[in-house]
Task: inverse folding
């Protein structure tokens, strides 16, 4: 059986809303294994983004455990969570959040450089990733010189920079047209299959969810 990459056990999460308490999760558990592709679906406000942020250590549950490859991130401090997130999790947002003053190649290399990879090796790996997302020749283009679909492909490559165990995406196709969504998913599923990494996508798009192994529905 493939290695368990993410294990969530019995988490609770609530938010204060005026004088009321909004409970998002109660005694919630699930796990993901290496190589699985999972769609996270549900209406707006059902907790999809909250769950992704908890998995990444950007938010904490009120109780329960969140383990990434056996490490309970709820027991880590801020710096330790940041380090684990940078090496084990690649995150792609709906809005790509590329740095506007950096080239495509530099944006892709940034996570590896932050992790301590030497400049030459980081740039070499970034160049390979750029080719894998079919953007050969765009190395020196800044984000404003790329189309929306091209910027999202750079964001995928950046998320892969440290060869993470898990790739997590929050509505990554929300700003793409139908043709670009199909191209995006073909590219994404090919890369995930080749690298045998876990993929978790929060999405409303059936063209995305229909390409994944299974769905997790939040209500």
Result:
């Amino acid at each position: 059986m493939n290695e368990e990459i993410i294990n969530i056990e019995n988490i609770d999460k609530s938010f204060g809303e005026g004088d009321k308490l909004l409970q998002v999760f109660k005694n919630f558990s699930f796990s993901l294994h290496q190589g699985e592709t999972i769609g996270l679906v549900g209406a707006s406000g059902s907790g999809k983004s909250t769950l992704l942020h908890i998995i990444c250590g950007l938010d904490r549950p009120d109780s329960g455990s969140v383990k990434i490859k056996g490490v309970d991130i709820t027991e880590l401090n801020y710096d330790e969570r940041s380090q684990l997130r940078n090496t084990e999790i690649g995150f792609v947002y709906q809005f790509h959040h590329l740095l506007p003053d950096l080239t495509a190649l530099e944006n892709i290399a940034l996570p590896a450089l932050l992790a301590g990879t030497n400049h030459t090796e980081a740039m070499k790996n970034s160049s390979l990733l750029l080719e894998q997302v079919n953007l050969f020749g765009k190395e020196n283009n800044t984000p404003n010189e790329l189309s929306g679909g091209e910027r999202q492909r750079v964001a995928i490559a950046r998320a892969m920079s440290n060869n993470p165990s898990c790739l997590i995406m929050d509505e990554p196709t929300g700003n793409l047209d139908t043709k670009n969504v199909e191209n995006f998913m073909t590219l994404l599923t090919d890369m995930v299959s080749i690298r045998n990494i876990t993929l978790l996508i929060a999405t409303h798009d059936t063209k995305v969810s229909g390409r994944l192994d299974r769905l997790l529905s939040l209500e």
